[in-house]
């Protein structure tokens, strides 16, 4: 078995090193092509990719998408008067200009545009309170104190307080429905898709900046899905800067590690080639860069560097014995290709398990990362040794590595005590305590997003500040769960449907965490009351079909064209998992009791509905991912080392890391969500590298007959530095994300940094302690062994 | 909040009233024609359902509030009846055999009371409002009863939409429709009924209609009122033969001769005349009159209704009825449920 592998490696080695120019040329050509592809890649965030499309909630939402169209995509601009209130001539003038300016921004659904100035308010606004019967800003308005007084009265009577006008009269809203696609101004026949980033920038330039300068007394707040996505894309672009920082830090560390500029440049360039290939291939296969897959280049860069370091380390060691660079490179290739492949396979396996999560962005992350690590096989395992065989390694570096091989290392000597019979039991006991403590504390771990506002962005981002402003000053919530009520055609206005809808709304309002609920019933009751002169004694559903039919005539968007679907909008306090669970549970309970032929209560749409679905998917996937990734990693270890003991030595430290990672998340208030779930798989997949590198060396020294502690010392001496360095490289690659404007990237960065560093620590600390108990050195000594690394 | 008074039905200028009457008549025809069929269907389908106990019941729409002795009893949406024995600080939900909106409640003594509402339901309680039984309903009307009043423990009236006048002489065991005692050809809604000291019973309704009876409701006289808009309520003051009638757009009238002559009472709000509809009123023990209405309006008179102080609560939430809490405070009900207020109507700060 082992000789077979050796032959294969030799064949591969011959193939590559006998055709070095060809390898270089092929890589160059591929690089040129993929670089061109990579330049074409664009940030893209598709709504559908971020949600679990197979979840029944989402399937139902998609099924009824057209009927729910009016509920969707709006942006709201709140114009705040810093001094005084909105009833001033200057304020109203600015508001009018903003209203006019917005009207001409591409993508705005002009017919639905609403502010105090738009005539449409008068006709379409139906509120809980009644009808707006007159024009809020009358034709006779001229900005005089009298007309401002009249305006104030009209606003009071309009029912717009809390909606278009803030509860404290210090701001008012311009409500902007958007079109997902709109006719090209140049060519009316062509439809243009709404470009969220461009739209968001236009709002910034033409509205926020312009009018805040023009009238220093106003402050503009903008919220809405389009604005949020625009901000997200802007945040993505900042990530490029992080890449630069990670690059520079890595460069410095590499120089320190290798003592050799030539090999440093070689490693960096081949790793950059890997990143370019990965990006190019992503575009080639039709993917864009979304906020999640954006992070893959970082990972690839870090993994590439760490493999490059192993190579350089090896070549430097070999160079001290070999006569030229080519021979050193060949020998290193022979020695390291296989463990490198195993480590990369382990990475890939970790990534691929992510495919089981039914969310587009995660799948793309998995695919992107898998492509990336596959690319590393070519660039860092093949191209790098070939490149080094040309440029060689500086004499100084070779001399140093020669010296290192022979001198004593007090630091590694100290660390080797982890394998000693005295320290090992203490280590195991400590690990058990940490494991138990971690398990206990991670009970506090929550599913879903825990912060107020838009979870994608930081709580102190401008968007979330704007959002808070609007939540605090208007009777509104940004977390909406939509229940779809399906009836027979023309059935939604019948008493038999409306009465249960009314009951559902009341049940929801009595559910903890629900602020209010709105549906066509709300409008109907107001209308019926209105038809009865505003008398509260009539504010209820009528059993008369004609009265009911008339009463919903103005409930635009609260039922579909043929009156077979009516959404119930349930406004929630927040989007914490418990709140969502309670609301969803209440609806399901109600549906179970009340669903019948011709009347169905269906979950769910609205952002809270989507989050509820996402949470369910995450909750289900969490354990599966964990089991799967450990199963895969353990299998990899079994195949590689053919030993239960070895597998346990490598995997158990990872388990401790996972448990402590969960506890850390609970401590930091980070929920298990779309962004943090991949971290488990990535952390374990990449983390196993250390164990594989260390154990493979340890095993070979044990076979040579060394006692455990001495064998571990030798292991550390030869590979410890590379492992330490690898851990640092990976951590640096991801820790810059912590400063990302995008909350989930920051969370991912924090968690990955922790997992990668702690995995390294675990491998150095726990692996030898476990080996002390699980491995019998005397059995291994002198044995030929059957692991893949046996030579 | 907003003021529904500006609603469609209500902004119509005086000149168009005739059209409105016609419209009402037409809609009535429609109602009558459809009602027979609907009745059979709904009655068969609906078993006796009780109001659901809900933690937020006291925040839901509440329409009327009265005293049963010291106890406060309030009725409202979804068959909610709440009672409080601590001046409105805490409320308990009663067991009520309906889920329809209840529009009025009346207690003749500490124990015996009646509530009326949609589906023409009449409910009765003999235990100070803790439990209720159904005495009457008529789904075929597709119309609510709007007020209820008892002369004595046995004899009472309920009034309602489309001119309904229903009488009992046996404490509600049987109820009889006596609408034809009124000269109400257009079947105007009868919005409220009240007792006037030393005079008799008084009914007000839609389009300014007024009826009075000096013989405990056996015969009724139609009056030409001072106002053509709808009147939502009527209340007798502490003085003999004196009463207030009130309705749309802050219209409030006072009569000292059981309705023979009327004087409009001006209600001055911060920014001109009060334009909110008035819906409920109470007479406090000291003779103070409190009238409430839409737009959070609370108007108070300490001179038997000659002049009023007007207060609009900042939340502008529509109010439907008012009564004394029993400790000087007021209990207000309406949209957003029951709440305790200072004697002026301002929000009572919780201690």
UniProtKB/TrEMBL annotation, chain A:
InterPro entries (alphabetical): MMPL_dom, Mycobact_MmpL, SSD
UniProt membrane topology term: Multi-pass membrane protein
SUPFAM superfamilies per UniProt: Multidrug efflux transporter AcrB transmembrane domain (SSF82866)
GO cellular component, one term: plasma membrane
UniProt keyword terms in alphabetical order: Cell membrane, Membrane, Transmembrane, Transmembrane helix
Domain SSD, first and last residues per copy: 231-390
Subcellular location: Cell membrane
Top-level taxonomic group: Bacteria
TM region(s), chain numbering: 21-41, 235-257, 264-285, 291-309, 336-357, 369-393, 423-441, 623-641, 648-670, 676-695, 722-742, 748-775
Pfam families tied to this protein: MMPL
UniProt-listed PANTHER family: MEMBRANE PROTEIN MJ1562-RELATED, SSD DOMAIN-CONTAINING PROTEIN
Protein name in the entry: MMPL family transporter
Automatic annotation (TrEMBL), chain B:
CDD domains: Sialidase_non-viral (cd15482)
Listed GO CC annotations: photosystem II
Swiss-Prot/TrEMBL keywords: Photosynthesis, Photosystem II, Signal
Signal peptide: 1-40
Keyword Thylakoid annotated: no
An individual GO BP term: photosynthesis
The Photosynthesis system II assembly factor Ycf48/Hcf136-like domain, residue ranges: 138-263
Protein name: Photosynthesis system II assembly factor Ycf48/Hcf136-like domain-containing protein
Species in which this protein is naturally found: Pseudomonas proteolytica
